[in-house]
């Protein structure tokens, strides 16, 4: 009898706090839980922090300490409960999800389910891509890329012939949206800072190559700002190949659609994102790109108690004639509306974009705010101020300001810490 009671207790699903289960603790999910405040929620996420992605390029280049561009979920959402794990199944009838945790599988029940599973890098069937390209989506990617670039400098310094040195000092970025352009600009600054400590490499040509299939870089922003960004990159001798695709990549070479063969050990793939592929397994209504279809209340079509937002959803916007693009600023506004819809009479979501900002490395940036176009130092300053304002938690803002202040007076740190995650075994 006692055993039956115990088993019954063990198999009963744990219930989400306040009845609201948020799947995914990224920008969208974390803000829903934060906005729900004292009403509480349970977040299931693979990490115990929210990554503030706009600062990822600076984390990669060493202007910012990587830990400072993440926000711990338990601090950001003090009234929410966090289950660290991965959701691998959703039962829409029984209103439960199955979570894989370090302590084994768990079942969690919900009254309202919020899907905020984000996106994954969008890949194409290009020979060599999955084996040889580096991704730039997560904090681990940023740290890995930084160590990889610094490692290339060390390898170039040790190389015995000039061709190998040049190959090591050639960096190809495929995808000229925000992530690709900002990452290239920041990392080329890092490499230039570092190279002053490599006297043997001074005469070796450095190549930074930006490739995109579209006719312009940064297609999301007004053409004059995109043209300024392209001119700025070219003035730093970045080779910009537009209307060009990647044909193949191997351990030592990238081949472009226009026939150019680029000897390189570094290809960074930043060519967009695709909705989390897990969604395809859960019998949800999806659009042609695999995004969950929601109505203007952010409710999943045909499911009264299931909601979705952020990069994993196709969100109609009453103040725009297009569904929202996958950006933090949209995810944040969707989260605010969704949290209100969970606790009161639901209202349609609408948000008019206030502007767009991007940095182009040290003291250079572009910004379009309320119709005003800014570039150069002013664009850079507005971009940084905007991110500082948006970053949650005063303690995080303070850490970022300290990092930025230090970087005004000192050069970037060039220690390559790639071996840190692989300590040597005892004995
Ligand atoms: C390098 C880079 C730079 C960017 N710069 C900008 C910028 O400057 N401005 C801007 O507006 N936008 C920017 N973006 C886009 C922005 O990051 C996204 O639009 C935003 O993060 C979307 O939030 P989200 O919560 O939908 O997804 P994410 O932030 O990706 O969060 C998804 C969450 O779901 C979790 N998850 C996934 N699968 C599971 C599972 N099975 N179980 C549990 N949890 C799971 C993940 O761990 C993650 O925490 C950038 C993106 C990148 C990659």
CA radius of gyration: 23 Å
Strand content: 15-25%
CATH topology of the largest domain: FAD/NAD(P)-binding domain
Distance between the termini: 51 Å
**Total count of helical runs of at least 4 residues:** 12
Structural class call reads alpha/beta
Shape: globular
Annotated CATH architecture of the largest domain: 3-Layer(bba) Sandwich
Q: Specify the CATH homologous superfamily of the largest domain.
A: FAD/NAD(P)-binding domain
Please report the total strand number as a whole number: 25
Instruction: Please summarize the sheet with the most strands.
Output: 8 strands, mixed
**Approximately how much helix is present in the residues?**
25-40%
| Distinct small molecules bound, one entry per kind | flavin-adenine dinucleotide
Structure description:
- With 427 residues, the chain is of the alpha/beta class.
- The protein has three domains: 13-121 and 274-343, FAD/NAD(P)-binding domain; 124-271, FAD/NAD(P)-binding domain, CATH 3.50.50; 356-409, no CATH class.
- 33% of the residues lie in helices and 24% in strands.
- It contains twelve helices and 25 strands.
- It has helices at residues 2-11, 27-36, 56-61, 73-76, 129-132, 139-158, 162-168, 178-195, 223-235, 328-343, 376-390, 394-409, and strands at 14-15, 20-23, 42-45, 49-51, 70-72, 81-91, 96-101, 104-109, 112-115, 119-121, 133-135, 170-174, 207-211, 238-241, 246-249, 253-256, 261-263, 266-269, 273-275, 292-293, 306-308, 313-314, 355-359, 365-369, 372-375.
- The radius of gyration is 23 Å and the shape is globular.
- Bound molecules: flavin-adenine dinucleotide (FAD).
- Flavin-adenine dinucleotide binds at residues 23-29, 44-47, 53-54, 56, 86-87, 116-119, 136-137, 178-179, 276, 278, 310-312, 326-329, 331.
């Amino acid at each position: 009898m006692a055993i039956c009671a115990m088993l019954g207790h063990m198999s009963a699903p744990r219930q989400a706090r306040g009845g609201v289960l948020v799947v995914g603790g990224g920008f969208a999910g974390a803000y829903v839980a934060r906005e729900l405040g004292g009403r509480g929620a349970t977040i299931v996420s693979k990490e115990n922090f929210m990554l503030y992605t706009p600062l990822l390029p600076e984390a990669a280049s060493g202007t910012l300490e990587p830990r400072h561009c993440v926000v711990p979920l338990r601090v950001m959402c003090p009234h929410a409960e966090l289950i660290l794990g991965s959701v691998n199944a959703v039962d829409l009838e029984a209103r439960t999800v199955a979570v894989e945790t370090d302590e084994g599988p768990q079942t969690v029940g919900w009254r309202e389910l919020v899907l905020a599973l984000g996106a994954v890098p969008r890949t194409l069937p290009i020979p060599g891509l999955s084996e040889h390209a580096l991704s730039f989506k997560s904090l681990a990617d940023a740290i890995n890329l930084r160590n990889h670039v610094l490692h290339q400098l060390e390898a170039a310094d040790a190389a015995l012939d000039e061709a190998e040195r040049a190959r090591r000092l050639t960096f190809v970025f495929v995808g000229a949206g925000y992530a690709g352009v900002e990452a290239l600009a920041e990392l080329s600054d890092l490499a230039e800072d570092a190279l002053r400590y490599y006297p043997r490499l001074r005469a070796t040509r450095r190549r930074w190559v930006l490739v995109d299939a579209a006719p312009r870089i940064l297609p999301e922003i007004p053409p004059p700002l995109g043209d300024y960004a392209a001119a700025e990159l070219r003035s730093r001798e970045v080779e910009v190949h537009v209307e060009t695709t990647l044909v193949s990549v191997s351990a030592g070479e990238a081949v472009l659609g226009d026939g150019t063969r680029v000897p390189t050990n570094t290809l960074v793939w930043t060519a967009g994102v695709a909705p989390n592929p897990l969604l395809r397994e859960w019998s949800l209504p999806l659009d042609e790109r695999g995004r969950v279809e929601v109505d203007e209340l952010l409710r999943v079509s045909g499911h009264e108690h299931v909601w979705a937002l952020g990069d994993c959803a196709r969100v109609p916007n009453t103040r725009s004639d297009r569904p929202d693009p996958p950006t933090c600023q949209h995810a944040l506004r969707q989260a605010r509306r969704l949290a209100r819809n969970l606790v009161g009479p639901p209202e349609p979501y609408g948000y008019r974009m206030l502007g767009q900002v991007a940095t182009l490395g040290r003291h250079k940036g572009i910004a379009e705010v309320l119709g005003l176009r800014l570039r150069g130092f002013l664009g850079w300053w507005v971009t940084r101020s905007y991110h500082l304002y948006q970053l949650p938690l005063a303690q995080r803002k303070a850490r970022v300001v300290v990092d930025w202040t230090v970087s005004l007076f000192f050069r970037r740190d060039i220690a390559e810490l790639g071996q840190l995650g692989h300590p040597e075994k005892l004995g």
